[in-house]
Amino acid sequence: MNNKEQILLRIISESGEHLISTYRHEYRSLMALIRDKLYPESFGECGGQGRCATCIVKLDATNEIPGRDRNEPATLAKIGVVDPAIRLSCQLQVDKALNNSTVYLVYDS
Q1: In what order do the strands lie in the sheet with 56-60?
Q2: Bridge partner list, 23
Q3: Beta bridge pairs of residue 56
């Protein structure tokens, strides 16, 4: 029996639409999943510290996503982001809150 809860994501990038199935804790963040599955160039350059803003995504989430914390508010404020749907993917855990969400790569080289 598989105790892993499946998480389904639709990721939209310049290269098209990608349907991805994963499970909680398979990746440490949404950024890690995107880097592993889609290989966007220059994506997530600070390695998940929430400082470079090269992993920006826009979420169309069906569930409530936890608020911004750690370095994310300051980093987004520096570049003038006020839209709550714009997030740093390195600061988002891949869990049931993201299930059935659509993720748009805002930073996409």
Answers
A1: 16-23, 6-13, 101-105, 56-60, 86-88
A2: 6
A3: 88
pTM greater than 0.85 (yes/no):
yes
Q: What is the DSSP string of 31-92?
A: HHHHHHHH--TTTTTTSSSS-S--SEEEEE-SSPPPPP-TTHHHHHHHTT---TTEEEGGG-
Structure token pair of residue 101: 């969400």
Torsion angle in degrees (nearest 10) through CA of 23, 75, 109, 22: 0
pLDDT (tens digit, 9 = 90+) per residue, 22-56?
999 899 999 999 999 998 888 888 888 888 999 99
Q: Are 18 and 10 in contact (CB under 8 A)?
A: yes
